[in-house]
Structures are given as C-alpha cells and as structure tokens.
Amino acid sequence: MNAQAAAAGGTAGPGGAASRAEYCVVACAEEWRGAGEVLASPMGLIPSLGARLARLTFSPDLLLTDGEALLVGPDGEVEGWLPYRRHLDLVAGGRRHVMMGASQIDRYGNQNISCIGDWERPDRQLLGVRGAPANTVNNPVGYWVPRHSRRVFVERVDMVCGVGHDRAAAGGAGRFHRLGRVVSDLGVFDFATPDRSMRLASLHPGVGVEEVREATGFALAVPAEVPYTREPTAEELRLLREVLDPAGLREREVRG
C-alpha cells in the first residue's frame, strides 16, 4: 500500500484511495464469491455494482439479469432470454442468489420491507412483502443497508418479510435457509454465532466498534478482534471507476 492509500485507509487506484462506497461495493461483491453458475439478483445500486464486479473478477460464471426477461453481461449487452417460467424454476430450485434491502432487520436476520408500526394500523406503508419469504427459504440471501441506524437494526421487526434464522429453525425450513451477510455503510455482519444471531464480521476503514454499537438497536456479538473489510484491489477500483460506474453514482448512496 502506498502512502496516499495508507493515509486514507484504503488501496490507491486510478483516481486515488478507495472510498467508503467502494469498500461497500467490494463487500457486496464478496456475497457472490464461489456462487458458481447461479442467477445473481441484486436489488439497489451498490449490490448491482457488486454483482457485476464479481462477474468481471472472481465469479465469472454468474448470470446477470436486467430484472425483467433478459440475461445480460456486466456492460448490459444481451446474452440470453430468461422467460418468466424459467425464472420461477430458478427461484424454486435455489439457483438464484439474492441481495435485498431492509427497512428493518433484527439480530436473527428477520427482515421487514412491508410497513412500520402495528400491522393492523401501520404508521407507514412500504414496498410490501413481495418475494422476500420465498427468497429466504429457497435461495441464498444477503442484505444491503446504506444507512446503518437504530431505526433499521432493531430488536424486533414490525413485520417479518424475509425469514431469519430463529424463524427458519422453528418452522422446519432450516435445511433450505441460507442467510449470508449483511453489508451496511459501517461494516459487514454475519451470523457465525452459536445461536445464529448477528455478529460484527468487519469494520469499514474509519469506523470504530463503538460507532457500530451505538447505531444498532440490539446487543451485537462483537469478537475480541474485529478486522477491517478487505481492500479493493487496484484492478477492482479501475473496473468500478472506468467501466462499471464512471459517473460515480455509488458515492451518492454512501456517506463518508
């Protein structure tokens, strides 16, 4: 690492040291490392950049979709047709790897994107349950949260859309339940604990453990030593800045 990168806490590439947004993209890309030939279904800009970056680097067998009916390359060039019936086959058969958002998420990974407040009379209506339950009992799933706060990381979600570890086990769906990592603008989290509750797996450079604890509405498992999120390589930074997102839209989504 050169002096410029060391001062900024990240790898230097074309255009300077890695930004917080670029660490987040790489952390999302890692969700598809070793995924093989599956349909990547990222939801949102940062996860989409992550999936495309993974395809261009360490996961070349990933299938990318335009979200409707086409299979596309990282540059958007059409590679094939994905009819709806085939898409449903992939979903039901576990051949899809999803990264969703979360309006609320709890310590066991239960996710809410439907409403805030009491279900019978909610304070705010959101997207609705949509495909979250089927995603979480049929496919590997990760989450992306661009603003880590106690409003999102809550003790108990107001409504369960995506199924967490505790509910999957209680409902007998644990065999097919594959909940991976949660990436936020502060760090990366997993469920590598005895009770499958959320654990701080890595911190993004410039973030401290206490900052994460203060922004989390439940007692988070924190190891004695917390590593930093892996740095983007110079080639990953080049791809992000020159090929995938030359307009720098990623920087608008992540503070810092």
UniProtKB/TrEMBL annotation:
It comes from the Bacteria. SMART domains: CoA_trans. Pfam families: CoA_trans. Belongs to the 3-oxoacid CoA-transferase subunit B family. SUPFAM superfamilies: NagB/RpiA/CoA transferase-like. This is CoA-transferase subunit beta. It comes from Streptomyces toxytricini. InterPro entries: CoA_trans_fam_I, NagB/RpiA_transferase-like.
